């Protein structure tokens, strides 16, 4: 039997794993705008659309049958808490890209979540080995509070890019600020250079 492969998010290998202005917590906080979405897996769909030659809509059972990866990563929230050593399990961004590739002109991904919530990121930040659509955290299914049935995890950016209650992704030629990005948060959100707020 081959040993279980876990993808290491590169930031977990830094000598100092805590970015400037952050402090460590032991419990995982719950943070979001509005109320907790309670999505029924039977009607949930994952839609890949926008600047692609075709469009895909994936039901929950199909999504759960996709190849899964495990990622070990740290969480850095812009409100200054960091939670180290998270083990995520879910579908790699590469797998989603292969199911429905972007057109060459597409440079951004708009992530859609329940209640018309969105977040935006450069395609380059999305297509990294440690980016996944997670269904489990530390071996337990995601709770509704943390984004069930599926949440995005983008370990190298502040945690607001990690959309909970994901309903799909849209490839775009032009950037389009999402919910927090249009409310004063930085457009990209690199924790190591403290890209916290837009000025
Ligand atoms: N759909 C959705 N996803 C979201 C948010 C939100 O308001 N709606 N908030 C973001 C922010 S600001 C943070 S810090 C994290 C918090 O995730 P957690 O509650 O699992 O810790 O979710 C992110 N994903
Ligand atoms: Mo946040």
Describe this structure in words.
There is one protein chain. The protein is mostly beta strands. It has one domain (6-10, 42-190): Oxidoreductase, molybdopterin-binding domain (Sulfite Oxidase, Chain A, domain 2, Alpha-Beta Complex), CATH 3.90.420.10. Helix content is 8%, strand content 32%. It is built from three helices and twelve strands. Strands 1, 2, 5, 6, 9, 10 and 11 form a seven-stranded mixed β-sheet that branches. The chain has a five-stranded mixed β-sheet with strand order 4-3-12-7-8. A hairpin with a 5-residue loop joins strand 3 and strand 4. The termini are far apart. The mean pLDDT is 97. The site of molybdenum atom (MO) has 6 residues, from loops.
Topology at a glance:
Blueprint: E1 7-8, E2 23-24, E3 45-50, E4 56-59, H1 60-64, E5 69-76, E6 81-92, H2 93-99, E7 108-113, E8 117-122, H3 123-126, E9 132-137, E10 140-141, E11 151-153, E12 166-172
Parallel strand pairs: 1-5, 2-6, 3-12
Antiparallel strand pairs: 3-4, 5-6, 6-9, 7-8, 7-12, 9-10, 9-11
Question: Descriptors for this entry?
Answer:
single chain, 199 residues, mainly beta, Sulfite Oxidase, Chain A, domain 2, seven-stranded mixed sheet, five-stranded mixed sheet, 3 helices, 32% strand, binds the ligand Nc1nc2c(c(=O)[nH]1)N[C@H]1C(S)=C(S)[C@@H](COP(=O)(O)O)O[C@H]1N2, binds molybdenum atom
